[in-house]
Amino acid sequence: MTRAQTGSAVLAEARCWIGTPYQHQASCRGAGTDCLGLVRGIWRALYGSEPCAVPPYRPDWDGLPGDEALLQAAQTYFAPISEPQPGDLILFRPHPAGPAKHCAILSAPDCIIHAYWGRCVAETSLSAWWRRRQVAAFSFPHMEP
């Protein structure tokens, strides 16, 4: 499959998660998920089992500067890109001096699908606030036809 076809499959699966309530460290469509759980669920739907176990992590966006576990994992399992397209993974640094701690799926040039505290999985605007905090973008691995 091409990158665009893989992105379409990612986006279709991400949209199936819309409305799933937020639950820290969960990854169960319809029952509960956080932003990483959404990405994990998409991965399972498209590729089967997850590539690695996820260690416990804090429910808040605090973290020590330099603690880039999310960014390092994305660099290991996804392909870095400079121009994200719908279906690509975007990482954010909610606090400018902190680590990358939030992730979303680009759904349109100006929209993302993500889960965040106090809400459910939703498609929201990729506002200026989020754009300023974007750290990196990645494509999902190409799927076999």
Structural notes for this entry:
This protein has 145 residues and is α+β, with helices and mostly antiparallel strands. It has a single domain, classed as endopeptidase fold (from Nostoc punctiforme) (Alpha-Beta Complex), CATH 3.90.1720.10. Helices cover 29% and strands 22% of the residues. The chain contains four helices and eight strands, in the order αββααβββββαβ. Strands 3-8-4-5-6-7 form a six-stranded antiparallel β-sheet. α1 crosses α2. It is globular, with a radius of gyration of 14 Å. The protein starts with a helix and ends in a 6-residue tail after the last strand. The model has no long low-confidence stretch (mean pLDDT 92).
Number of helices: 4
CATH homologous superfamily annotation: endopeptidase domain like (from Nostoc punctiforme)
CATH topology (fold) name:
endopeptidase fold (from Nostoc punctiforme)
The whole-number mean of residue pLDDT values reads 92
Question: What layout of secondary structure does this protein have?
Answer:
Layout: H1 3-16, E1 27-28, E2 32-33, H2 35-47, H3 69-77, E3 79-81, E4 89-92, E5 102-108, E6 111-114, E7 122-125, H4 128-133, E8 134-139
In short:
This protein has helices at residues 3-16, 35-47, 69-77, 128-133; strands at 27-28, 32-33, 79-81, 89-92, 102-108, 111-114, 122-125, 134-139. With 145 residues, the chain is α+β, with helices and mostly antiparallel strands.
